[in-house]
Amino acid sequence: xxxxxxxxxxxxxxxxxxxxxxxxxxxxxxxxxxxxxxxxxxxxxxxxxxxxxxxxxxxxxxxxxxxxxxxxxxxxxxxxxxxxxxxxxxxxxxxxxxxxxxxxxxxxxxxxxxxxxxxxxxxxxxxxxxxxxxxxxxxxxxxxxxxxxxxxxxxxxxxxxxxxx
Length: 165
Hints:
Elements: H1 2-28, E1 32-42, E2 49-55, E3 60-66, E4 71-76, E5 79-85, E6 89-94, E7 100-114, E8 122-134, E9 136-137, E10 143-144, E11 151-164
Antiparallel strand pairs: 1-2, 1-11, 2-3, 3-4, 4-5, 5-7, 6-7, 7-8, 8-11, 9-10
């Protein structure tokens, strides 16, 4: 019985020492600050989701889920990052003979929160949006902007400073 109590006391003391060391290390951990880059790609004009790769302060693959009111949630394997972005401004053209659509816009974004490994993330930045698409033709053979395009490429590059606690 005395051997069991001694073993339990040694285990408790070791846990306290290790736990105290862990607390000391956690207490001295500093936030990671730097530039974060996001690249989003989509080939669907009708989906509100895009593939995303984040690199910089952290690197991760994920999915962008566009929400209402210029909001988005980036879902990564270790958590999510939420943001609000401005409405883009820029140029757009549509050729009614070839059905070619080109769109180039830019804007800003603010990170509004995160979960998991990204809890407490803050930051902001600028984005550049490029879309190249070929519109569908209607039954009369004319280009239709009312139908989903027959080909669609969207690329968004965003970059800005972040702090990740």
